[in-house]
């Protein structure tokens, strides 16, 4: 089975759980199987949270957290020093980070493919805010698929429309456009 595991790290209110589910749905649109789930604890707005997406070409029979992912997505760069973010790092991993920094400015102890995009700036520019906080989950999905090629940007756009169904059309389309912008603005690099 060709399995690709992604771990999302964010803060409560940034949409990590919803982002993991929308990404999984984007891969489903391309004929893949997925699991998307969260690590729940005492989460509250601003507290560190984790969510997971597992993608495969056939039914997935693993039911555990993801300890050694193929990709780590960091919605808040202040979490980069958090030990849970660095857990399971291995050579060849993708690290996709919401930061204004370039990939070469992020140091890891392994050979990694590092992708950066300033999703917070995009959220602020586009007005994607909840209670004054930038919500970057859908924006980061554009970056994730460009970095990893796990799904197409078109599938992500369709999945965002479905995942945000019930919100005003303008809100949905703003999120779709922001994901495309992150896809276009992504910076790719390597560590070591």
Helices and strands, with pairings:
Layout: E1 3-11, H1 16-28, E2 33-39, E3 48-56, E4 71-74, H2 83-86, E5 93-98, E6 112-117, H3 119-126, E7 129-130, E8 133-134, H4 137-148, H5 153-163, H6 169-185, E9 187-190
Parallel strand pairs: 1-4, 4-5, 5-6
Antiparallel strand pairs: 1-3, 2-3, 6-9, 7-8
Written overview of the protein:
34% of the residues lie in helices and 26% in strands. By secondary structure, it is α/β, with parallel strands linked by helices. The chain has a single domain (3-190), classed as Pyruvate-ferredoxin oxidoreductase, PFOR, domain III (Pyruvate-ferredoxin Oxidoreductase, domain 3), CATH 3.40.920.10.
> What's the CATH C level?
Alpha Beta
Tally of structural domains: 1
Q: Which whole number gives the mean pLDDT?
A: 92
Class of secondary structure makeup: alpha/beta
| Shape assignment | globular
Tell me the strand order in the biggest sheet.
2-3-1-4-5-6-9
Helix content: 25-40%
- Report the order of strands and helices: EHEEEHEEHEEHHHE
**Tally of DSSP β-strands:** 9
Distance between the termini: 30 Å
